[in-house]
Amino acid sequence: MNDKTADLAGSGIGYYAEVKKIITRIKLIIRWGKNLLLNNWFFIPMLVVITLICSILNFNAQTQQGLIPAYLAYSNFILSGFDLKVEPWLYTFPMWGYGFVVSITQRKIWLILIQQLVQMLSIYYSDYSLKQLDWSSTSRSLYRLLCLTSLPWFFFHTVLWPYSWGASLLLFSIFSLFLFIKRGKIFHLILSGVFYGLMLNFRSDYYFFGLFLFVLMGGLSLVKMIPIRFWHMIVWISLVFILLVPWGIYSYHKTGHYLQKTTNKGHFLFISLGQLPENKWSITPFDKDSVMREIVDEELRRNVRTASLQADGLLTGKWLELIKNDPSEFLKKCYHNFDTYVTKPFYNGEIWSSVTRNEEDLIGGKIDQQIYQFSQNLAGKINSNRVAYNIVRFQQKMVDVILFLFLVSCIIYLFFSGKELLRDWVALIFFSLLFYQIAIVVIGFYSSAYNTNLYLIYILTIIYCLVEKKSIIKGFLSKFKRLNKK
Predict the structure, then answer these.
(1) CA atoms within a 13 Å half-sphere pointing along the CA-CB vector of 250
(2) CB 394 within 8 A of CB 382
(3) What residue spans define the domains of the chain?
(4) Is 298 in contact with 344 (CB distance < 8 Å)?
(5) Band of the pLDDT at 470, cuts 50, 70, 90?
(6) How far apart, in whole angstroms, are the C-alpha atoms of residue 328 and residue 309?
(7) How would DSSP label each residue in 268-311?
(8) Alpha-carbon gap, residue 167 to 173, rounded angstroms
(9) Which residues are CB-neighbours of 470 under 8 A, at least 6 positions away?
(10) What pTM did the predictor assign?
(11) Distance between CA atoms of 96 and 147, rounded to whole angstroms?
(12) Nearest Cα residue to 443 out of 346, 326, 318, 331
């Protein structure tokens, strides 16, 4: 071996050693980061800090603030001892759950802090559940990391709306059910049913999913595909219905019918047709749509609410009639909504918005006013600073990656899992919940808020499919290699 060859060999060995050293350092950093994320003394303070920052930035969010007067009225009704003579204009939309929260305080700062505390508890409870479900430390650390970067989730909980409570209670319910299936403790089953029933008092969107979950899990228990018995699910659904009894009594006094959900389904479905731009029906996606108002005035009478019980059946029937008469136009509308879902999947906050008139009723204290002014000033500085502005916008675009990874994990897992899927109750519940929500925004009314309800479920599904079920990925890669060789 001449000197030149020896030098080349030496440099090659040196280069290899250097690369190996870099890889070792990267592994050490990853291990250190993983341990840091799993340390509650780091994770919980970071969660609190990020939550507070997002709460201040999005303090002036305007989304769906038109319903605040209804929740204030529900608060008066509740505090009166449920006197039907108080706020007689109240009907059966919206659900009254948020009215109970507003009964505790009508200060915006306290409402937001309570919502954020509940969502942080839901994150901690879900993380605790993952440990009980024997998820790997890699999955848990990845979940914690993605939670800390979930700005849409934190922004979502700064808005004064029932979605915040609904999303948190849904997490509590789902993971309590997981713990029951895994550990077999009736306490967790009771918790799951109670949390789900409470959630439906805030939003009735998931009413039919509750029935589907009962049929799905009950059916799988009968054929012994999951380690629970059918009577367990009977207890679960019974608890859900019991928690809806007060609303049923209230709705009976208002309508003469015992109801378990709101009466805006027809209104919601009808104006959803207006989400297709320049549609043949000339419907607009707004609550005061003139076509809808005209139908209700002609078929019923003037001044009947479009979200009333009478209008609900009428508008649902009209929605079905319009679809039957022009299915191609409806398919265009569904495609448009799905396209919007893919391109604008999640709520990204409104850090440049200003206070609305309705919110002023809830910003009465000196601290609230100071936060409002500080939020406005901070948003202005971010807007004027190109670097800060680009960072915020970049983050908002990055949330689309979550949806992309979800779709990829869905395709891989569903395609290659085979019969294993029927025994995988975690995947069944995750996928059922997400596809149920997708159906709502595609067939019904699209709103990024509806998807953000399940933001953490998206994250958990990705981790479950791509990390916890890595054997599926390995099978996919091996099949891909065999195809390439052919």
Answers:
(1) 26
(2) no
(3) 38-485
(4) no
(5) confident
(6) 30
(7) HHHHHGGGSTT-TT---SSTT-HHHHHHHHHHT-TT--TTSHHH
(8) 10
(9) none
(10) 0.90
(11) 30
(12) 331
CA-to-CA separations, 260 to 150, 196, 386, 441, in angstroms, rounded = 33, 13, 50, 22
Q: What is each CA distance from 479 to 27, 408, 475, 482, in whole angstroms?
A: 29, 16, 6, 5
C-alpha gyration radius of the chain: 26
Residue 430 backbone dihedrals phi, psi, to 5 degrees: -60, -55
Q: How far apart, in whole angstroms, are the C-alpha atoms of residue 98 and residue 89?
A: 17
**Token pair for residue 41?**
């003394």
Torsion angle, alpha carbons of 414, 418, 421, 427, to 10 = -20
Pick from 238, 99, 233: nearest CA to 160: 99
Q: What is the token pair recorded at 34?
A: 């993983």
Half-sphere exposure of 89 (CA within 13 A, CB side): 9
Give the pLDDT confidence of 259-315 residue by residue, as tens digits: 999 999 999 999 999 999 999 999 999 999 999 999 999 998 778 899 999 999 999
> Distance (Å, rounded) from C-alpha 296 to C-alpha 293?
5
Exposed/middle/buried for residue 206 (C-beta within 10 Å: 0-12, 13-18, 19+): buried
Structural tokens at position 297: 């005035």
Report the alpha-carbon distance of residue 394 to residue 420 in Å, rounded.
38
The 3-state secondary structure of 17-67, one letter per residue: HHHHHHHHHHHHHHHHHHHHHCCHHHHHHHHHHHHHHHHHHCCCCCCCHHH
CB neighbours of 221 closer than 8 A, spacing ≥ 6? 228, 229, 230, 232, 233
Rounded mean pLDDT, 363-391 = 60
**Contact by Cβ (8 Å): 283, 274:** yes
Q: What pLDDT shows up at residue 421?
A: 79
Reference 99, options 74, 64, 76; nearest CA is 74
Cβ proximity of 304 and 296 under 8 Å: yes
358 within 8 A of 102, measured Cβ to Cβ: no
- How many Cβ atoms are within 10 Å of 57's Cβ, its own excluded? 22
Return d(Cα 453, Cα 484) in angstroms, integer: 41
Which two three-digit tokens encode residue 430? 């995750």
Structure tokens belonging to residue 449 = 């808020």
How far apart, in whole angstroms, are the C-alpha atoms of residue 264 and residue 202? 14
Contact 269, 285 (CB under 8 A): no
What lies within 8 Å, CB to CB, of 432 at 6+ separation is 209, 212, 213, 216
Give the amino acid at 89: W
HSE-CB of 101 using CA atoms within 13 angstroms: 29
CA distance 124 to 30: 22
Maximum alpha-carbon separation in the chain: 103
